[in-house]
Specification:
Elements: E1 2-6, E2 9-11, E3 33-35, H1 37-51, E4 57-64, H2 68-78, E5 82-87, H3 94-108, E6 112-116, H4 127-135, E7 138-149, E8 152-159, E9 162-169, E10 172-176, H5 188-194, E11 199-202, H6 235-244
Parallel strand pairs: 1-4, 1-6, 4-5, 5-11, 6-10, 7-10
Antiparallel strand pairs: 2-3, 7-8, 8-9
Helix pairs in contact: 2-5, 3-4
Bound molecules: adenosine monophosphate (AMP).
Residues 6-8, 36, 38-39, 42, 62-64, 92, 94, 97, 115-116, 118-119, 122, 124-128 line the site of adenosine monophosphate.
Length: 249
């Protein structure tokens, strides 16, 4: 069985996002970019499934600018077998990403596609669900535990009230939640080896996928500044302020 893993290049989670001067999005000039954290979890899970002898090949796919090759190389250094970059300078929204992943899945015929539950830049939380609908495959979203047994699998999902266990048939789409695993770091020798691994570059046109955006971003703004806190000297002062200044008691 092949596993397809989607890896997106996003603003590094340690970098404070700043709105660009035009107010149309985040300023990405000269900022550190990394693999979307939920996608690191997706790669890790795919590797664990392969290491357990339940898959033969892990293929990392990214959609975006040329530099997304670095994101794919990170996945290859973690242990993925080969990579595919679908290169475009255009903005690709979740529906476009899902269509591209579906086109690649049609070529590669994986038993499993693992994507993150959401990208930390657009926070859409849509791609996995759209992919499952486009391919008419079953899906297990927000997975915190995955156990594959033959052509079926048991998945524990993080839901509002706690955990939900489901059983489903492969092929399927999984979206990863934070507690699924702790991703490994790529070791230096593996980073060197990853440079030699196969990385194919395609375009949306070659896959005959229409990635035209369906949504228009009207405006992006910084959240309002929060007022600074105040340290009070005593409980009596606190009570006085709550009563007479904040007027909440
Ligand atoms: P989203 O629906 O944008 O929140 O993204 C959910 C997941 O879809 C991400 O965690 C990735 O696994 C995958 N994904 C979204 N956009 C891309 C992209 N441009 N390239 C590769 N994977 C992507």
């Amino acid at each position: 069985m092949k596993i397809l893993v989607a890896v997106k290049r996003v603003l590094d989670y340690n970098v404070k996002a700043r709105v660009n001067a035009e107010g149309t999005g985040i300023d990405l000039a000269n900022v550190k970019m990394s693999m979307n954290p939920f996608d690191e979890i997706a790669v890790e899970e795919a590797l664990r499934i392969k290491e357990a002898g339940k898959a033969d090949e892990v293929i990392a796919v990214s959609i975006g600018v040329t530099q997304s090759q670095e994101t794919i190389r990170t996945a290859l250094a973690m242990g993925a077998d080969r990579g595919i970059l679908v290169e475009t300078d255009e903005e690709v929204q979740p529906l476009g990403v899902a269509k591209i992943l579906a086109a690649i899945a049609a070529r590669e015929e994986p038993g499993l596609v693992i994507v993150g539950k959401q990208s930390i830049d657009d926070d859409s939380n849509q791609t996995g669900q759209m992919l499952s609908a486009l391919m008419d495959w079953t899906q297990a979203t927000f997975a915190s535990e995955v156990n594959i047994d033959g052509d079926s699998m048991k998945v524990t999902r993080e839901v509002d009230g706690g955990l939900e266990s489901i059983e489903l048939q492969l092929p399927a789409v999984i979206t990863t939640d934070l507690r699924l695993n702790e991703p490994r770091y790529a070791k230096l020798p593996n980073i060197m080896k990853a440079k030699k691994k196969q990385l194919d570059v395609l375009t949306p046109a070659e896959l005959e996928v229409d990635i035209a955006p369906r949504l228009v971003t009207v405006k992006v703004e910084e959240p309002p500044q929060r007022k600074a806190g105040e340290i009070v000297g005593s409980v009596a002062e606190l009570v006085d302020k709550l009563k007479n200044e904040a007027k909440v008691i």
